[in-house]
Design goal:
Layout lengths: L9 H9 L7 H11 L4 E4 L6 H14 L9 E6 L3 H14 L7 E4 L6 H7 L3 E6 L1 H9 L10 E4 L2 H6 L3 H10 L5 E6 L4 H10 L4 E4 L10 E7 L5 H12 L4 E4 L3 H13 L4 E4 L5 H12 L5 E4 L1 H4 L9 E4 L6 H8 L9 E7 L4 H11 L19 E2 L5 E2 L25 H8 L1
Parallel strand pairs: 1-6, 1-7, 2-4, 2-5, 3-4, 5-6, 8-13, 9-11, 9-12, 10-11, 12-13
Antiparallel strand pairs: 14-15
This protein binds adenosine monophosphate.
Adenosine monophosphate (AMP) binds next to helix 3.
């Protein structure tokens, strides 16, 4: 399959050739022709599947043919949950539109509003925005939606998780009813389906991945380790594997800052992004990480959205997330596009519940491997790579193992008969 067959114009085909994109990804194959046809689309796509191009390319093509935007007007609006994602998506849109007369920009909180107001003065073809700042701009009469033709809601599930539902509803009321709407979400929960029902008109529903499945190209491993030795284990792994670019996830802002200090003390260049840091500090950290000046970026879940560094070889969960879907989002930072990735999780005994939930959500049991020299004192659920068993882990009875007869805990194997009963 080639991009030309999807109906893209020469300007975009040239850009894709310059970027060495030869083959469209599955979400692009499904979404691009539908959007070009003017259809509403509801697509389930994880980060790393090429979903940004799946909406940005056809939206740019549709808008390239129309009239110029009037003052303060936007013709295409892309709403995203976080500042980092806004800036990342805007960069991608700009790159894709580099051979077209399309004006685009981004607005998000945490930075001065005045430059954004002046950017909007002459109108824009495509605006990427976070919900709160968009509403602020509307109240300051800096933006007008009369000419709006296309609305994209990116990472809609994340938007709901972060409590933006009221903002989204308010924005919906400001937009013309006559418009094309595209919604992208990593999961199709009930609330996402309800939102889609109220915002989309007879949409084409695209599902290119299984619900909450993790990207196949990512190798996942659980490293059981004592909680008190996690930083030491992380430093050991970084030095042993000589990772030049590593993304580490922490649950808390304080934990992220503490970890950065410990990494720096061990001679490893590191920085953090989380909600308590200024937008400027976050941008500096992300830029330093992208251009290779910072070896380890420590992020909390919210701030991590929008990190798109090509060929990120490995991500490490320093803590397991409380929300299992965050695990899927986190590991989606590696193995992006056609590259394979590695996702390691440092797992301490107190995180057994989270691990069980993650395994239930992704639908399979993750392999355990002890890091040499870091055998946990408090033995959690452990199976070493050579098959040795430790601990007295009792598996979650609701966990559906992918393969019958697979190891599910000390001395327990899922018998074929009980499995079929359970799955009935
Ligand atoms: P996304 O899922 O939109 O965050 O995209 C993930 C990464 O894949 C980004 O770095 C894109 O530049 C890249 N990408 C998107 N589509 C393609 C494609 N068809 N071929 C190669 N890389 C792509």
């Amino acid at each position: 399959m080639s991009f030309r067959l999807l109906g893209l114009c020469d300007a975009l085909l040239n850009t894709l050739a310059e970027k060495s994109y030869t083959t469209p990804s599955p979400i692009q194959i499904e979404a691009i022709p539908a959007v070009l046809d003017g259809r509403d689309v509801m697509a389930m796509a994880q980060t790393g599947t090429g979903k940004t191009a799946a909406f940005a390319l056809p939206v740019a093509q549709l808008l390239s043919g129309g009239t110029n935007p009037l003052a303060k007007n936007v013709r295409g609006l892309i709403i995203v949950p976080t500042r980092e994602l806004a800036s990342q998506v805007a960069k991608s849109v700009e790159n894709y539109c580099c051979n077209m007369a399309i004006r685009c920009g981004a607005v998000f909180g945490g930075v001065r509003i005045e430059p954004q107001i002046s950017m909007l003065k002459d109108g824009l073809d495509i605006l990427v925005a976070t919900p709160g700042r968009l509403i602020d701009l509307y109240h300051q009469q800096a933006i007008n939606f009369e000419q709006l033709e296309i609305l994209v809601l990116d990472e809609a599930d994340r938007m709901l998780e972060l409590g933006f539902i009221d903002d989204i509803r308010s924005i919906q009321n400001l937009l013309p009813n006559q418009r094309q709407t595209l919604m992208f979400s990593a999961t199709f929960s009930k609330s996402i389906k309800a939102l889609a029902k109220s915002m989309l008109n007879n949409p084409l529903v695209i599902e290119v991945t299984t619900a909450n499945s993790t990207v196949d190209s990512v190798k996942q491993l659980i490293h059981p380790v004592d909680k008190a030795r996690k930083s030491e284990a992380l430093i050991y792994l970084i030095k042993k594997n000589k990772w030049h670019q590593l993304l580490v996830f922490c649950r808390t802002k304080r934990g992220a800052d503490d970890l950065v200090s410990q990494l720096k003390n061990a001679g490893i260049s590191a920085d953090s992004i989380h909600a308590n840091r200024t937008q400027h500090a976050r941008t500096l950290a992300l830029d330093g990480f992208s251009n290779g000046n910072i070896q380890v970026l420590v992020a909390t879940d919210i701030a991590s959205r929008g990190i798109d560094v090509n060929q990120l070889p490995c991500v490490i969960n320093f803590d397991l997330p409380y929300v299992a879907e965050d695990y899927v989002h986190r590991i989606g930072r590696t193995g992006r596009a056609d590259n394979t990735g590695l996702a390691l999780s440092l797992f301490s005994e107190d995180e057994s519940k989270q691990l069980q939930t993650i395994e239930r959500v992704i639908g399979c049991k993750l392999p355990r491997e002890i890091i040499s020299g870091f055998t946990p004192n408090k033995k959690a659920s452990v199976k070493t790579s050579d098959g040795e068993l430790y601990g007295n882990f009792e598996p979650d009875p609701k966990l559906k193992s992918k393969r019958k007869g697979e190891f599910l805990g000390r001395g327990k194997r899922l018998a074929k008969s009980s499995s079929s009963k359970r799955n009935r």
